Amino acid sequence: MMLAGLGTLVPWLDLKAADTVDASPLKTDKKRMNDNMKVLLLNGSPHKEGCTYTALTEIAGALDKEGVGSEIIHIADKPVSGCMGCGFCRKSGRCVVDDKVNELIVRLDEFDGFIFGSPVHYASASGFITPFLDRLFYAASRKMAYKPGAAVASCRRAGSTATLDQLNKYFTISNMPIVPSQYWNMVHGFTHDDVRKDEEGLQIMRTLGRNMAWMIKCFGLGKEAGINTPEPEPRISTNFIK
């Protein structure tokens, strides 16, 4: 990509052959790249096809229009155990409790982005998704590092921002960029039919889906151009008494 046009606009700028930008690393098969991209949509609601699912399907539709695949995984068909802090995962890379957490850990490399959806339970995330994410991130956060993430909350009336704050902390402690939307990532309603009437909430979901697609495409182009993820420093771990 020649910059010769700048010489006319800026007379003192002497552009020679060396003053060029080699755009060849950015040349890529966009269709191939998009076809290989996939976002995980995690449904943390006890209701498989309720309000949270309705929000996630709206995101999935927006991703599809952008040429990005998605998969919705429902985690609440069985009780989810909390983290026992046993340290087993530090040695094995998997949780000592062999359930859907381990099933997802071995698949994390398939996904380029992550969206976690939860209903509001007592002004916080559900009792299903909280222990699930505690164990998932404790065992395998390194597999999600530098991949975009976003949280979605579904509520009848209130408690949504507290839930979003809780879920977003998983990303910020794990080197995961947070994908934005045009407003807080929430939908309102007591049933999935109510959520379908929340026009603003559904628009927020669609915007989130498009923004997620845009971000992972940008990251994909960066990799194609040889831009690697940051090199981490050796981990320093302290407490407040030493």
Count the beta strands.
Answer: 5
Please count the helical segments.
9
The name CATH uses for the topology is: Rossmann fold
Strand order of the largest sheet: 2-1-3-4-5
Order of helices and strands: HHEHEHHEHEHEHH
The fraction of residues in strands falls at 5-15%
Find the structural class using helix and strand composition. alpha/beta
The overall pLDDT, averaged over residues, is 89
Describe the structure.
- The chain has 242 residues and is an alpha/beta fold.
- It has one domain (29-224): Rossmann fold, CATH 3.40.50.
- Helix content is 39%, strand content 12%.
- The chain has nine helices and five strands, in the order H-H-E-H-E-H-H-E-H-E-H-E-H-H.
- A five-stranded parallel beta sheet has the order 2-1-3-4-5, sandwiched between helices.
- Helix 6 (129-140) links the parallel strand 3 (113-119) and strand 4.
- Helix 3 crosses helix 9.
- The protein is globular, with a radius of gyration of 21 Å.
- It starts with a helix and ends in an 18-residue tail after the last helix.
- 36% of the residues are buried.
Please tag this protein with its features.
Rossmann fold, disordered N terminus, globular, 242 residues, alpha/beta, five-stranded parallel sheet
